[in-house]
Protein 1
Amino acid sequence: MKNIVIKDERNYKVVSGNAVSILDKLPPAIFEVSFDPDKGFSLNEADSFFRNSEKLYGEVKTRTEKVLHSFDIVEGNLGVLFSGPKGLGKSLTVRNICKEALKKGLPVILVKEHFENITTFIETIVQPSIVVIDEFEKMYQVECKTKKDDLDDQDSLLSLFDSSLESKKLFLLTCNDVRRISRYLLNRPGRLHYHFRVNRLSIDEITEYCKDKLTEEKHSLIPEICSIGARISDFSYDMLRAMVFELNTYQCDLAEARRILNIEAQAESPFSFTVYFQSGKTETGFDDIDVSISRHHIDWYTHNNNWRERAIANMLEAKWTGDADGSLLLDGMHIIWTPGDNKNKDKIMKVVFVPVKDGYLANGNNY
């Protein structure tokens, strides 16, 4: 077999003759960026990126179609940020976008290490491509200065997201903590066009997953699992998988599974709520509810005179209503006015709490 000697400046490499192909562009495949101080940047195929094939739940398909359609019709680069805690499907959505992009003939480039001069290398790839940087805020830290121009790591990449490259790129970034994203990237749709915030699983996602994965005789537990998911602000697929595993494998009840699993409802969970009165009027509010305590003060401002009202809710008696939004229902028997307030003339009939899925945890805004 004939060998071929490849010379690149002062570097030589001997390879088998049938192992070399001269291509005018990258094929539709998954590549990882690597760097050698002597040889510079290169791309290596990475088949393991799609090792796990999972059913798609929630908005993965919808977001995939939107991102790829927008990339098809925009003239320049398109940046997309997926933010939220671990285990909520950010990486799954990115992988699905990449799978569909491969079908369109687009190569996918994974940046899995911190490279100071990655911008220059990406600019040399002169064809439409997908560039993925997972856990972006950890790999390129906003607090860390670069040696070249004393810019923050993330800010040194702004020109990459801004630039009109010879061929446009779709940048897919994920982050767990949006507070560690540069202020020059947030609220800048010219750089990151989309920001998909994922903070908790929806009741629809929990229900569908349980119907698929739980043994049929355990399906009666789905409403209770949904209620747990509504109460925990960062309820994730990791938590859900662990519950389903215990229930299926050891035939235990949900109380026993919760007792031994590493799942705690200690953090405050954000809810919008509506108070329904006997007279027919309603009041609305927003609160961070500590689901680990038995009683909770809920406060709202009345529609008529903006007067602050307060009642006490027995959160341990909250019941899941079965609605797709994951509402928690407290009837009037479990809601009382603050002691000393003379408001019993208009009795509270019920309070419905709806867990906030997007927005609040991601950007700190109170609805």
Protein 2
Amino acid sequence: MAEKLLRVQCYAGYKGGERPVQLQIHEQMMEIREVEDRWYSPGATYFRVLPVNGERHVLRRDDAQDAWTFEASRSSG
């Protein structure tokens, strides 16, 4: 999958943007039902999320740029 920038709304706890809560897919904002997993690498944080549409996505947040990209997607069914 080619790197694709996207818009993500985050829950802002004591660390700032701690975890994604909404994701813009095409022109539609979609609520994230569950953050299934989170892991860290130097300079980035990854989240495996389950939006309300049932598709799973792996999102990457570049910590220095505060930019989000799709890393992987899997449709349900």
Protein 3
Amino acid sequence: MRSTGFGHAGVATGLAFGTFDGCPGSHERTCHFVGIPITAEAALTGRVIGIGIQGFVNLNTKSIFGGGLFFIPIGWMP
């Protein structure tokens, strides 16, 4: 993560194990998968409030999924 006096930006990844109901392309009721989650975030912050954006995706062989959001961090920022 990279941080400055007015905000931060970061990218993170790892290894995930998950399950979900209704396996796509199969007659199984429950799917198990190993995936690679990736997230990226950037924010501009003042002393007490800021604004940011975050995106995420999980790359796996069963069902790739992802999303994004805008957020407002509130509190005393270091």
